[in-house]
UniProtKB/TrEMBL annotation, chain B:
Residues 170-444 form the MHD domain. GO terms for biological process: endocytosis; intracellular protein transport. The keyword Cell membrane applies. GO terms for cellular component: clathrin adaptor complex; clathrin-coated pit; plasma membrane. This is MHD domain-containing protein. InterPro entries: Adaptor_comp_med_subunit, AP2_Mu_C_sf, AP2_Mu_N, AP_mu_sigma_su, Clathrin_mu, Clathrin_mu_CS, Longin-like_dom_sf, MHD. It comes from Oncorhynchus tshawytscha. SUPFAM superfamilies: Second domain of Mu2 adaptin subunit (ap50) of ap2 adaptor (SSF49447), SNARE-like (SSF64356). Signal peptide: none annotated. Its main location: membrane. PROSITE patterns: CLAT_ADAPTOR_M_1, CLAT_ADAPTOR_M_2, MHD. A 1,2-diacyl-sn-glycero-3-phospho-(1D-myo-inositol-3,4,5-trisphosphate) binds at residues 351, 353, 355, 364, 366. PANTHER family: AP COMPLEX SUBUNIT MU.
Length: 1004, 445
């Protein structure tokens, strides 16, 4: 916008603005504006024609008033008039007003569009530019609709001026951003790509922005741009700094264009053509070389521009991830920045290195900078940079340097910023576990972790250490000794007490031989911490005590004394009280044999994804894709490379442990996460390893232990051992092969292949025990056995229906070759169409599979279709057949009608074959509300006040099939004395009456 | 209890800052400026809560007075104090303006020390304040010990508002009944809401310690007297000069407040208003009535929209009081639409002008007798706009001054007894004046 100065005239505007600025108060300003508005209104009244100059002046004033925050509701017409002026300044003010004040006003929009169209076709480059700028500034949907086709034409027309092309490209970019659906690819796309060859660098810059955006939308159309971009880039890179004249910025040749071209190239994989590839590599090398050259200027702009190109080049190199030499060079280049004075550069260098570290080629190169990074961690002043340093350390860690990095991170933890402590803790825990060669080191590390930053150690971390200690025999003794020593510190963190309590409870016997850690000393040590702990920890300690009784009969008296004390037996907390009572009774009643069985050592945990890793991912949040990417890359490199360690993380990753989804959850007690399940405290009591059905894991054990455990079955939430406790339910179903195999090996995928024999199980009888439950409802659990749970969710409308079948894998093993099909036997085939959509052939352990069935009812039917399920579990073929609860009444549409209507129709359906009556004994209690709900669930409309006897139920509805519709009336008369029902059904079709009567009578 | 008191100019600069309690920090000064004076949206509530601190403000022309507290105080008390503060300042140096405040800042601090002690309001009676806070400063050599002790005994005594030994050659008494009448009327002439808030302001120049008794046509007293079968003798000395011709004798007062000199116990038991008056000017009572209000003017609007670009407005005003009385300073404000591009006005009486800066036609009449009517007609040209919003038609408002009390209040008597000095009720010269002004007097159109 040219300055509205004295040279441009418009004295009135200058006076007005200075008046406003001189206003003492807001009120005075408003008064002045009101006066001016009235003046402008009287000028715009229309009786006398205004010349272009005054129109421009008043429109300017209006614009100024609007920008001050006042509403302007007139003057649009005058502004539109200005658009058709031939003077640049007038046209410009007109467009300015329109860009700022336009709203989707129908009559004006067409006028504006018309003016813009005129200008676009005017051949006058300034006017065309003004019009294009207006389109881009407004960028509304209406604009896009009107000009989405026009702008590309201008862009690729041969005779368009360069400056107009530039504007057109940017305008199109804007339209594509606001309404991408309206910018259609056409034959112009090919020509747009050739704009990269344009003489004018401005056009190229604008076009590159456009192409980058469009290429993300449809990569195929712009594939040719890669070679052109490479060519252009190489020309820029190889040019002398003076070649490009206007486009040289502080001795850097066209930095913006270079950055944009490099971005464009990042939309595509490395070019396949060797020549182009070579040329690109050459370019990148040149950029890296230039970075090494001494700076041509001391100015910060020079280094900024240079570094911008360099970083973009490095991210392209990382994106391609194919040229080892380049990657290493990039890494070295970044290494120099690690100690740069500029904080931003250090940050960027660390960030880029993080991604470099995950590439197999540059991983080693990154590792050479470990000292610098550790130094940065210690000496850096900016917390965000320190955060990046932590990330980088995490990324560059592998088995060779794990000990060093973990030690550094641990020592840094003491001084770390509070905001990143928890993340560091998680990272340390993961690294320690992942790269542990020696598990004593792992135990030491985690204990240190708890000691340094106990508050930031989440539950997952200490669950994990316990899981690992329990699963690995060789560290148990060491762990017991270490925690025992750690607990001797006068003040130790609660998490340490938890770990200590658990480990000593399990493995205290391993160190009991030493007189310094005799059972009594162990107990006293634990008990000295007891009173300082929160309730969940105390509960855990109580469990540890009862385990002590089993391990060391000699301290039984002491422990019973503790349990008997009022502070335990009469504790206000229900959980603690219950544990104390139960454990006391258990220890005094049960024989040593029973004690030994009940309190046996915990069995190994089944292997699964480290919950810590999941937590770290969650912490990063869904918005940050980086860690995922990081993981994937890592996996890739791991698979191609050597390490077997990463299989720990990838093992169960695709199936994060969750119980069968909420729908299938038995009695809906188990939430799908690892959160506390309402289990009795006695869950801790170990279940014997004899195979028992998994769904009955805990309860039979408790019952067998004697009547005193009846109490224990009450659902009191225990929060302590959740991550651990929840696995108990599944452990028994794991194949015995998992026992004793290495902890960190993906057991199942290999073992399945090893089973050579397939023993198909004979097709069992069709299961239909739950069938009748679905007559009156649409959702629920249809079938369940030890392996599989089938849940249903269905909806019906007229003669169509859709059923969602959920197959829940209750085991921790994958089901292979999973197939489910629906069979309609003989006559049913013509009566009912069931179409099953294909589902995945595998169901992961603990996961759920969904299959959709589409159902169409052709005519009335009696039978029900059968769902056949086949899968391979642990090498054996399993077959399950379940009757699908698709019954005639599902296609019932309720109809409301008055008493009179009802009885009229009732009489019409009086023919003897139309009526079916059944008298039967009630199977359930005769609750009115339940009956009502059942009739409604059956599908009929429940008609109140129709029957003269209020205790009778009357319903009506229409059965929809594809061929016919069958009206249907029903009447249910309960007799409470005799506990009998009489059900009468009248429909226009005898078969329907019979079938409905049979279905409904089953329900009461 | 008030924690502090600040006075700002229109720019938000602090002119006076007095902090009484420790819980109010310096940042409170800025908080008010940032959140109220410089607020992006105009703050309309007189009470603002910022960070658990309450700010009570009043604005006098360009000056902001803000009382600050962290406690849960009686807001009405605080505002009463602020208004009193304005009165006191006005009586010392006239108009409250930035310049006056700057010129008198020593005096203001002195006053603040006197009328507010640890945040508790103290004696703020101008008359008595002037005895010991003088604008020239207290001249020590002229003040005898006796006078000093007199001040002390007065300030600490039972009748803090009047000193002893006042002598006037002529015992005179001025009584003003000032009322402002508020109205909102529908276009059809239906009263939507109306109330009168009035004040009885006295100026007394009486010798000694006179005991006064004030009587008016309060409904409760009249009814009581009527029931008792005894007509009050004092009724004869009716000083009323009311403009209403309606035969109603009494008015119903909705609520009233009194100056501190009025004996409230007596008012509660006998409903009689008796007091020892302060010397000079003071406000005896304030009251509000909502029933049987005499509306001095009736506005009859007629607005006709002729097409999209023209509006015809005709407004008739009728005066509704005794023809012998004259209303003064009449001003009718007719709002115009926001897209007005031109106005033609014709009026028989007075002057009318379209004021673009206020978006209104202002019609001024100097004087108008009762039972008359006058009219104005205007043609307003409109500019077509692309806004579909209809004009909101704000109400027509009016300002005036009439020489009677629209509530119908009449002073029945004001008796003065001074037992010690030898003057009686008859010797006192009494002046009574009624002024009715418009408050918010609006008619929808």
């Amino acid at each position: 916008m040219p300055a509205v100065s004295k040279g441009d005239g418009m004295r009135g505007l200058a006076v007005f603005i200075s008046d406003i600025r001189n206003c003492k108060s807001k009120e005075a300003e408003i008064k002045r504006i009101n006066k001016e508005l009235a003046n402008i209104r009287s000028k715009f009244k229309g009786d006398k024609a205004l010349d272009g100059y005054s129109k421009k002046k008043y429109v300017c004033k209006l614009l100024f008033i609007f920008l001050l925050g006042h509403d302007i509701d007139f003057g649009h017409m005058e502004a539109v008039n200005l658009l058709s002026s031939n003077k640049y300044t007038e046209k410009q003010i007109g467009y300015l007003f329109i860009s700022v004040l336009v709203n989707s006003n129908s009559d004006l929009i067409s006028l504006i569009n018309n003016a813009i169209k005129n200008d676009l076709s005017s051949r006058n480059p300034t006017f065309m530019n003004l019009a294009l700028h207006c389109i881009a500034n407004v960028g509304s949907r209406e604009m896009a609709e009107a000009f989405a086709a026009e702008v590309p034409r201008i862009l690729v027309a041969g005779d368009t001026m360069d400056s107009v092309k530039q504007s057109a490209a940017l305008c199109l970019l804007r339209l594509n951003r606001t309404s991408p659906d309206l910018v259609l690819m056409g034959e112009w796309t090919a020509r747009v790509v050739h704009l990269l060859n344009d003489q004018h660098l401005g056009v190229v810059t604008a076009a590159t922005s456009l192409i980058t955006t469009l290429a993300q939308k449809s990569p195929e159309d712009f594939k040719t741009s890669v070679s052109l971009a490479v060519a252009r880039l190489s020309r820029i890179v190889s040019s002398a700094s003076t070649d490009l004249q206007d486009y040289t910025y502080y001795f850097v040749a066209a930095p913006w264009l270079s950055v944009k071209l490099l971005r464009l190239l990042q939309c595509y994989p490395p070019p396949e053509d060797g020549a182009i590839r070579g040329r690109l590599t050459e370019c990148l090398e040149t950029i890296l070389n230039k970075a090494q050259e001494p700076p041509k200027s001391k100015k910060v702009q020079h280094s900024n521009a240079k570094n911008a190109v360099l970083f973009e080049a490095i991210s392209l190199i990382i994106h391609h991830d194919s040229e080892p030499t380049l990657l290493v060079r990039a890494c070295n280049q970044l290494g120099q920045f690690l100690q740069h004075r500029e904080t931003n550069l250090r940050y960027l260098a660390l960030e880029s290195m993080c991604t470099l570290a995950s590439s197999e080629f540059s991983h080693e190169a990154v590792k050479t900078h470990i000292e610098t990074v550790i130094n940065a961690l210690k000496s850096e002043r900016d917390v965000s940079v320190r955060q990046r340093a932590v990330d980088l350390l995490y990324a560059m860690c592998d088995r060779s340097n794990a000990k060093q990095i973990v030690a550094e991170m641990l020592s840094y933890l003491e001084t770390a910023d509070y905001s990143i402590r928890e993340e560091i803790v998680l990272k340390v825990a993961i690294l320690a576990e992942k790269y542990a060669v020696d598990y004593t080191w792992y135990v030491d590390t985690i204990l240190n972790l708890i000691r340094f930053a106990g508050d930031y150690v989440s539950d997952e971390v200490w669950y994990r250490v316990i899981q690992i200690v329990i699963n690995r025999d060789e560290v148990q003794g060491y762990a017991a000794k270490t925690v025992f020593e750690a607990l001797q510190a006068p003040a130790c963190h609660e998490n340490l007490v938890k770990v200590g309590g658990y480990i000593l409870g399990e493995f205290g016997n391993l160190i009991a031989g030493d007189s310094r850690s005799s059972p009594l000393i162990q107990f006293d040590l634990l008990h000295s911490k007891f009173h300082l702990c929160s309730v969940p920890t105390r509960a855990l300690l109580l469990s540890a005590y009862i385990k002590f009784i089993n391990l060391f009969p000699e301290v039984k008296g002491t422990i019973q004394e503790v349990l008997r004390s009022d502070s335990q037996l009469r504790n206000a907390d229900v959980e603690l009280q219950q544990r104390a009572v139960e454990y006391l009774r258990l220890s005094s009643i049960a024989s040593t044999d029973i004690l030994a069985t009940v309190l046996e050592e915990m069995p190994p945990f089944p292997e699964r994804e480290s919950s810590i890793l999941a937590k770290l991912k969650r912490k990063k949040g869904p918005g940050n894709l980086h860690p995922d990417l990081d993981e994937n890359r890592k996996e890739r490199s791991a698979n191609g490379g050597t390490a077997d360690h990463s299989s720990t993380t990838s093992n169960a990753k695709s199936s994060p442990l969750s119980f069968v989804g909420d729908l299938l959850a038995p009695a809906s007690t188990a939430p799908p996460t690892n959160r506390p399940r309402p289990v009795s405290s006695s869950y801790l009591l170990q279940a014997p390893l004899t195979p028992i059905p998994p769904q009955a894991s805990a309860v039979p054990v408790l019952l067998s232990a004697g009547p005193l455990f009846q109490v224990a079955a009450s659902p009191t939430p225990s929060t302590d051992l959740l991550g651990l406790g929840s696995t108990i339910t599944t452990q028994n179903s794991a194949p015995p092969a998992s026992k004793g195999t290495s902890l960190l090996v993906d057991v199942f995928s290999e073992n399945i292949a090893a089973f050579p024999v397939e023993t198909p199980v004979a097709v069992g009888p069709v299961a239909d025990e739950n069938f009748s439950r679905f007559v009156c409802k649409n959702n629920g659990v249809l079938y369940e056995n030890q392996l599989l749970q089938i849940g249903l969710k269905s909806e019906f409308r007229q003669n169509l229906g859709r059923m969602y079948v959920f197959f829940g894998n209750k085991t921790s093993t994958q089901f292979m070759n999973f197939a489910a099909s629906v069979v309609c036997q003989d006559t049913l085939q013509a009566q009912l169409n069931v179409h099953a959509k294909p589902a995945d052939p595998t169901v992961d352990g603990g996961a759920q599979l969904q299959q959709i069935l589409n159902i169409e009812c052709m005519s009335d039917f009696v039978d029900a279709p059968v769902l056949n399920i086949q899968f391979r579990y642990g090498g054996t073929l399993q077959n399950v057949a379940v009757k699908l609860p698709i019954t005639l009444n599902k296609f019932f549409q309720p109809t409301e009608m008055t008493s009179q209507d009802f009885f009229q129709r009732w009489k019409q359906l009086g023919a003897p074959q139309q009526e079916v009556q059944k008298i039967f004994k009630a199977k359930h209690s005769m609750d009115t509300e339940v009956t009502k709900a059942k009739i409604m669930g059956f599908g009929a409309a429940l008609l109140d006040g129709v029957d003269p006897n209020p205790s009778n139920f009357v319903g009506a509805g229409v059965i929809h099939t594809k061929t016919t519709q069958v009206g249907c009336l029903l009447r249910l008369e309960p007799n409470t004395q005799a506990q009998m029902y009489r059900l009468t059904l009248r429909t226009s079709r005898d078969t329907v009456s019979q079938r409905l009567c049979d279905l409904l009578s089953e329900q009461f | 209890m008030i924690g502090g008191l600040f006075i700002y100019n229109h720019k938000g600069e602090v002119l006076i800052s007095r902090v009484y309690r420790d819980d109010i920090g310096r940042n409170a000064v800025d908080a008010f400026r940032v959140n109220v004076i410089h607020a992006r949206q105009q703050v309309r509530s007189p009470v603002t809560n910022i960070a658990r601190t309450s700010f009570f403000h009043v604005k006098r022309s360009n000056i902001w007075l803000a009382a600050v507290t962290k406690q849960n105080v009686n807001a009405a008390m605080v505002f009463e104090f602020l208004y009193k503060m304005c009165d006191v300042m006005a009586s010392y140096f006239g108009k409250i303006s930035e310049e006056n405040i700057k010129n008198n800042f020593v005096l203001i601090y002195e006053l603040l020390d006197e009328i507010l002690d640890f945040g508790y309001p103290q004696n703020s009676e101008t008359g008595s304040l002037k005895t010991f806070i003088t604008q020239q400063g207290i001249k020590g050599q002229h003040q005898t010990k006796e006078e000093q002790s007199q001040i002390t005994s007065q300030v600490t005594g039972q009748i803090g508002w009047r000193r002893e030994g006042i002598k006037y050659r002529r015992n005179e008494l001025f009584l003003d009944v000032l009322e402002s009448v508020n109205l909102l009327m529908s276009p059809q002439g239906q009263v939507l809401s109306a109330h009168v808030s009035g004040r009885v302001v006295m100026k007394s120049y009486l010798s000694g310690m006179p005991e006064c008794k004030f009587g008016m046509n309060d409904k409760i007293i009249i009814d009581k007297a009527g029931k008792g079968g005894v007509t009050n003798e004092a009724g004869k000395s009716d000083l009323g000069g009311g403009g209403s011709t309606s035969g109603k004798q009494s008015i119903a007062i909705d609520d009233c407040t009194f100056n501190q000199c009025v004996r409230l116990s007596k008012f509660d038991s006998e409903r009689s208003i008796s007091f020892i008056p302060p010397d000079g000017e003071y406000e005896l009572m304030r009251y509000r009535t909502t029933k049987d209000i005499i509306l001095p003017f009736r506005v009859i609007p007629l607005v006709r929209e002729v097409g999209r670009t023209k509006l015809e407005v005709k407004v008739v005003i009728k005066s509704n009081f005794k023809p012998s009385l004259l209303a003064q300073k009449i001003e009718v404000r007719i709002p115009t639409p926001l897209n007005t591009s031109g106005v033609q006005v014709i009026c028989m009486k007075g002057k009318a002008k379209y004021k673009a800066s206020e978006n209104a036609i202002v019609w001024k009449i100097k004087r108008m007798a009762g039972m008359k009517e006058s009219q104005i007609s205007a043609e307003i040209e409109l500019l077509p706009t692309n806004d579909k919003k209809k004009w909101a038609r704000p109400p027509i408002s009016m300002n005036f001054e009439v020489p009677f009390a629209p509530s119908g209040l009449k002073v029945r008597y004001l008796k003065v007894f001074e037992s010690k000095l030898n003057y009686s009720d008859h010797d006192v010269i009494k002046w009574v004046r009624y002024i009715g002004r418009s408050g918010i007097y609006e008619t929808r159109c």
